[in-house]
Amino acid sequence: MKTWITDTEPSERFPLYTRANADEVGPDPFTPLNWTLTWEQGMVPGTADAWIALGTFTEDEFLWDKPETYGNWGGYFYNQVSLGRVFGYRMPGATPDAIDISFFGQNPSVPPYKHDPRDDNEACSAKLGESFGAILGGAQQQLGDDYIAQARAWVASRPDLAQVSDAELVEYGRTSARWQRPGWDAYAQVVIGATVGPQIVQGIADAVGKPDLAIQIFAALGDVASAGLPERVWDLSRMVVASPSLTAEFDGGVSGLADRLAANADAAAFNEQFAALLADFGHRGVNEWEISADTWLINPTLAYQMIDRVRKQDASMSPAARAAEAAKRREAAVAELTAAVAGDEQTSGLLAAGIASGQMSYRLREGGKNATVMLMQEPKLAFRELGRRMHERGHLSDPMHVFQLLESELDDFLADAGSFTEKLAQRHQDWLALADLEPPYLVMRGEDIPPISEWPKRKAAAVGSAAAAGTTMKAIGGSPGVVTAKTRVILDLADADSLEPGEILVCTTTDPSWVPLFMIASAVICEIGAQASHAVIVSRELGVPCVVSLANSSKTLPTGTTVELDGSSGTVTVIEPA
Description:
The chain has 578 residues and is of the alpha+beta class.
């Protein structure tokens, strides 16, 4: 296989793409329907709308008939580096390098920024300054609140999908997927705006010689949507631990657990709380930006598995207790940095505004993400129902093959589904094969993309050997705290049960399905990530020290390596090799 049917053409204007931080969006290849419907028609133009609304770009800088804000090769999702660098160049007080670190982490293989005369635009710089001044004053609160309310209203409008026609299923799937364009306009504005406050605070902290305080100030904020999920899972796990009857049911395995719990009189309170969890977070799951992926509502076993893992953790490691300690450190950091600039009225005011803006933006960012993931469940439900029907009629050998369609093929599929049977089955097999490969880390216009047949197998792509005692590695500090413990490398959630309480989790990157491991691990190391990545935000809320963008750490810090991790400075020191 040389190419895949959804491969995009690299942009001439914005030529550099990366897999950095893309794993938490698309760890596995996107299905053709997901990319050509949800992304090409929703997220891609919605992100461009956001850049324009903030003033970074003008409308005529984008090619609207081709995807430019993101890329897709071999089915794999790619982030846009060039767009962010132009933003850093045009934004007063920012730099392309600072934006790289904030959005993508750090990797020596990424070529440095090269100035393009088209990057010069004083009008955009002026508008960006105005936009970010407004963001610093809290202007995005209403934007975020309105979007979340709108997303809930859209979901509440869902028809009874079992009763509508095939054509109505397709139309609802298309409509619900296209909600992502206005949704991502708002969400992307909030994500970009979330860089304002933290950068101001970091700059002030650096200037007074206290850089570590900037990370601590944005820890354990409370009311962060993605952190509310693990707290609910923790509470359910404690119900299991406290009940011999529930413990026995979980000891029997998660297969068939729902039926056993339904028949167990002692499980009434647990079942009620579990139903409430699905009502609030049933849209969460694995690979959340892919419309063929399971959610907890579609497959509740995923949620039972999370509870099963978390029940093994000691009660002293509860998210509430960890967060309370992190909150104390946050309050102390705010007081210390405030005192350090107390004699400078202008800097003091800027610091206070930066702290308030940054803390609000992190909450809005995660609340917006939760709403956007909630919208992703709508086309999932519609097209699963269509796939079920077509399978029953003998037109699909597997209901899930419906997701191998291109959006442009949907109408022809409705007219003659039988003509697609073999084609979609073959695509599904090819798509499964893509999931075993490691895509290139970078794609750049003007440089050949290796044929897919030459991509290495996953887990064989990382390089490096185990680090010796005394070796100190520097990455990006994500969540404060110092921990000394043994590492546990987990590259696949199928191996999650091997993580022992108190070990340091070493992984490539994370999405919400990894959250239970944060409640078991004493700290987290991610090979990929940035200061605004999922792992960082969840770690801060749960009070778990975290370091990200430590390349090849799964090789240099193999399971059993004793290390000291400092989540504020971003350093990891080998105490004793495995």
